[in-house]
Amino acid sequence: KAGVTQTPRYLIKTRGQQVTLSCSPISGHRSVSWYQQTPGQGLQFLFEYFSETQRNKGNFPGRFSGRQFSNSRSEMNVSTLELGDSALYLCASSARLAGNSYEQYFGPGTRLTVT
Amino acid sequence: GNSVTQMEGPVTLSEEAFLTINCTYTATGYPSLFWYVQYPGEGLQLLLKATKADDKGSNKGFEATYRKETTSFHLEKGSVQVSDSAVYFCALRSRSNDYKLSFGAGTTVTVRA
Questions:
Q1: What is the least distance, in Å, from the CA of A61 to any CA of chain B?
Q2: Which of A80, A107, B11, B43 has the fewest beta carbons under 10 Å from its own?
Q3: How many angstroms separate the CA atoms of A53 and A83, rounded?
C-alpha cells in the first residue's frame, strides 16, 4: 500500500507570495492533518480535515488555510508569505477521525523556504 | 492544556550503549502516548505507542512504559546501532484537546561506530 505523498518536496518562494502544498493520503484514509515543523517552535498542529470538512484547527493566522477533496486529497495554502513561514510542512493521514489510539501516518514533508 | 517535555539533546552514544530519553507529560483525562522517530530528510514514523496506564509499547528493540503515577513515558533501548541516529519525538493525544497530537521538542540522538 502506498504511503502518504506530498508535493512538491522542496519550494522556494519570496515574501508576499502565496503557496499551495498538496497531500495525498494512504488509500482508504479519510482524515488528513497538517503540521508545521520549525527549529524554534518544533512541531505544531495546523488543521485536520475529515470528509472534506475542517474538524480541528491550531493557533495559526488566517493566512494559513486548507481544504480536502472528495478523494481525500488535501491542499494547504499560505498567503502573503513571511520569512517565518519557512518550515517543513508535514501531512499525516489516518483512517479514523476521533479516538485516542488511532495512528497517524506521516508523509516526507514539503520544505518551504521563504526569501 | 496538554504539554510534553522531553530531555534536551543532543545525545551522543557509542554503538551498543544503552539509550534513555526521558519524557513527561501534562494532560487531563487519559491520553494516549506515542514515540515518533524522524530520520534525516524524512517525515515522522510511529515508533511505538501506549494507550492506557502500565501499557508497554515496543518496537525495533525500543520500549516505553506508560506511567500514570509519574506522568512519564521514557524511551529505552538496550543496545543502540548507528542506524538509530535520528530525532525522537514524544507525543500525546487526548479527548480534552480534541485528539490533536501534542509533541515534545524532540531529542537528537547520534550513535557513533
A1: 18
A2: A80
A3: 29
Q: Do A58 and B100 touch (CB under 8 A)?
A: yes
CB B30 within 8 A of CB A100: yes
- Comparing alpha-carbon positions, the chain B residue that sits nearest to A90 is B43
For A13-45, the pLDDT digits (tens) are 999 999 999 999 999 999 999 999 998 889 999
Q: How far is CA B75 from CA A48, A89, B24, B37, B78, in A?
A: 28, 26, 11, 11, 10
Q: What is the pLDDT of residue B96?
A: 77
The pLDDT, as a whole number, for residue B75 is 98
Measure the CA–CA gap between A21 and A30, rounded to whole angstroms: 18
* pLDDT tens profile A43-78: 999 999 999 999 889 999 999 999 999 999 999 999
Contact list in A for residue B105 (CB cut-off 8 A) is 42
- Contact with chain B for residue A39, Cβ under 8 A: no
> Is the model's pLDDT at B30 over the cut of 90?
no
Q: Which residue has the cell 534513555?
A: B20
- Cα-based angle A100, A6, B6 (whole degrees, multiple of 5): 45
The answer to whether A106 contacts B44, with C-beta atoms less than 8 Å apart, is: yes
Pairwise CA distance, residues A72 & B67, whole Å: 37
